[in-house]
Amino acid sequence: MAIVYEKSKGLTDTPFHYCPGCTHGIIHKLVAESLVELGVLGEAIGVAPVGCSVLAYEYFNCDMQEAAHGRAPAVATGIKRVHPDKVVFAYQGDGDLASIGTAEVVHAAHRGEKITTIFVNNAIYGMTGGQMAPTTLVGQRSTTSPFGRDEAHCGKPIRIAEMLATIDGAKFVERVAVNSPANVRKAKKAIKRAFECQLAGKGFAIVEVLSTCPTNWGFTPVKALEWLKDNMIPYYPLGNFRDFEEEK
Amino acid sequence: MAKVLMKGNEAVGAAAIKAGCRYFFGYPITPSSEIPEYMAKAMPEVGGVFLQAESEIAAINMVYGAGGAGARVMTASSSPGISLKQEGITYCAGAEVPCVIVNMMRGGPGLGSIQPGQADYYQSTRGGGNGDYRTLCYAPASIQEIVDYVMLAFDKADYYRNPVLVIADGMIGQMMEAVEFKDREKIELPPKDWATTGTGGKRKPNKVNSLYLQAEQLEIHNKRLQQKYKEMEENEVLYEAYGLEDAEVVCVAYGTTSRIVKSAMKLAEEKGIKTGIIRPITVWPFPYDVFKEIGPKAKGILAVEMSGGQIVDDVKIGIEGRLPVYFNGTTGGMVPTPGSILASIEKIAGGTK
Which of A45, A54, A78 sits opposite B198 (nearest CB)? Predict the structure, then answer.
């Protein structure tokens, strides 16, 4: 009988700890598959963040370093400068990258650091129990915005892909979502291309992945996917903001 | 090798490169900016990497990445910058990432001043960041000692898989002295088979990590770390001491102040007062045991430091209540004079004979 599907060799056998319906698992799989398909799993060194994906170092079947909150791009920089021939990636959430770690990601991009960043945006702090993130939508309730995010009080959510696309050193910037099979396929393509950007020695690459948090949003997994489509995508438009082959 | 005239901060860079350090991540701050400036020129010449980070926090996290990836790596800064680096230093300690951190201390608290200080003693000897950890900490008193101990620091960092600090005050960073780069004793170092270098598909993944969510596992990890610190306490204490046996007053000082103390001791000798000195070269681990060598003629201990008296705590631990401990100190930028130290010595000895 032909094998039609098997778990990527880029992932370990450790069971994920993620909540039911959380899309981190899908994104892990896409990263792992990309590394395997590009034939670079043995050359890969990943950096895990602080947040829901803090245990990513248990899941990716490659060398990993666990970074302090927000510092993954700096840690990845240190690794890449020591091993310029290896494939270095950072996996970060929105509290990690878009709040406490903005300086690190902006400057890694600015230096054109040849690393690949997977940025998971689920519009909330998941691990600490559903607090407001810089990416939380206006009106969205969280434990620290119990009456809904008030724009007059704490501003509008930050659009990371658009911001980083203004930086010359960022050679590949794309926003994708994992709310439907079609979008998952597009996400895979973007993640693979973000690694190809690094392999081609072009510069900094980032894929912002819109993701769900059914637990802290207070929705069923299916409703969470709908909420992402109806609320997040209109504010965070999907698409490519920068691609390295466009530059001559 | 012939002696060369070098500024303290440049000697830090030269010694690091001589010790095989090929990665330096830093951020400018007075009075240690000559270190990144030196590295910016010198690293490319040896095929190394100098990178100016966007902040001290980023610099120490780059150090964590590079050290975790198996490289000999260093960062340097001065007091407020070192405070920012504490986040990364505790991660390096927790994940057992070897690295060397140099602190050319200035006055504090807060922005304090840009002039020499020694008020980061607590921070340097008590861990500095969160959690139960210690860092081996050298306190050189000359440019030659900067060279010797910066080089040794890299070996010790690799041997123990631990961050190693070198602390000096801004005066040592800024002044020039003749130095010699001596051939060193080769230390047998364990292979860095734990580093993130890529599995090459040939081994299980390596993880550089300080997170242990299971309390039982964290306990095992911490007990092992404590055992390592105990080993450092047993094997790494360095100090200079003399005159303890028949001293009436024993002085305790490190770095620049130890040199001023030695001048004051000569003045005391001219006045017929016998003095001795304990000069810690490692401020952690502290040379507590040498206090047992102080003779019966001693009337008191005089600690001298460019601070409000931070080293006094360790002096009291060392003397175990057998003698009174006095302090003569100045803070950031004010340097104690031999005359003022002599006055303290005379007071403790009971006046000029």
Answer: A45
